[in-house]
Amino acid sequence: MGKTELHIVGIDAAPLWIIRKISKKYGLKGFEYLIDNGKFGNLESTLPPMTGAAWPSIYTGLPPSKHGLMDFFTINSDYEKQLVYFNESVSEPFWATLSKQGKKSLVITPAMVVRPSKDPNIDMVTGFPLPAKFSSDKIKNEAIKYDFLGEPDIEKDIKSGSMSFEEASKRFSESIKKRAELSKSLIKKGDYDLSFTCFTETDRLQHFALNRDDWEALAYPLYKEVSDFIEWLINNTGIKNSERSIMIMSDHGAQPIHNKFLINSWLINNGYAKLKENIDSAALAYTTREKLMSNKALRQIYDRMPKTAKSMTRKLISSSGVNVKEGIYSRMHDFDLDMGNTRAFASISNDPVSMIWINDSRFSESAVKHGEKAILMGELIRGLKGLKTEKGEKLINKIVDGKAYYGNTRMFIPPDLLIKVRKGYTIDVFNYSPKRIFMKPEPAKGGDHICEGIFGFMSPNGKFLTDARRVKSVLDIRNIVLKVLSRG
Prior knowledge:
Structural class: alpha/beta
Number of helices: 18
Helix content: 25-40%
CATH superfamily of the largest domain: Alkaline Phosphatase, subunit A
Number of strands: 20
Oligomer: single chain
Strand order of the largest sheet: 2-20-8-1-7-5-6
Largest sheet: 7 strands, mixed
Distance between the termini: 23 Å
Shape: globular
Strand content: 15-25%
CATH architecture of the largest domain: 3-Layer(aba) Sandwich
CATH topology of the largest domain: Alkaline Phosphatase, subunit A
């Protein structure tokens, strides 16, 4: 077995409540051992709590304003969304810093890292959201041996109904197992100081599963494979004998979603944004799958249908038409807005924490003068704070000033407001209705994010435990990783 001093396991969208619930019910020994014998608690994510922003903050110890990723996308002055990935040349990840100290790292599928390292001290398989790439033929050949060439790209099949949730759970858990076997093989053969293995299948399944009655049965196989990998690390790498350290973490957590707040509906209906004159809400695209999945009972029946029956059902629903006058929602995007007459718009982050931009001089068709911005922001904040759910409960939990959070960053055009909704809700920036600001979530939003992920740590004879107790945020991870592996 190699000399690896620190093993890190990343689990995308793993909150404390899911870990405790599933571990207690199914007896997942890897998680149970860490809970009983180490430091185990919550880890505060970024705003929004998104994979795109949070994992780079874990790698670098920097906030989004400095590493450049506020989400999977940024927006430019012409309102165009641009896909972004982690750029090691902009901000240095901990494995690159360790390499400068002469330390060797195994880095398996780090989320948002899409270019394999060329550093001889770093063996790498790149991660979500692009197909896997390899730092060397040696690593690629080992991955082929274990049939791991990246995570399965099956979201479209799940959304279309051509793949059942049970099959998706199976495919994702198999992917986790193959990656774990690859990591174990390389750890045994390699002479590493650090191993970091990141699993993102948990998040991808939970988006579809968490508001279903059978969510535990769907999520359990994935968490079992991760727990089995943790258990193997504890029993086979010196961790149980207090010779090595282990850390587990998540970029953010997850929750079931029961309703969505249509933020652009609210902005349009209150006169802050305007649709283009030639955009008829009835003509905006509305998918058959979304129509079907708005009804929970129908969705459960549909999921159990054979593939042929699913196809016939979709055709039948497609022929039935959509009655927009009854308040049925429609699909929209930023380019459907008349920006010259839009003072504020929501974009990018479809999340329980979403973003609003004031359409000022940063944009090509600005509609708000400098002296009007503060007044408009105050008006928006007051209106948002007064919003109630269908049950009369307060909808907005928190509003954060974008300038206060992002500072004077030049990495992207920062939003002016960050809006956080209450538990069980998420914010939708894509859909619009002239009559409603709430809708039931489509399948891909059955679960969504929360700001609290997990952090767990064990080290030889309690060493570094004081430091571990100070870890509260994704920004704190890098420092403790470097401290555990420091020359001293």
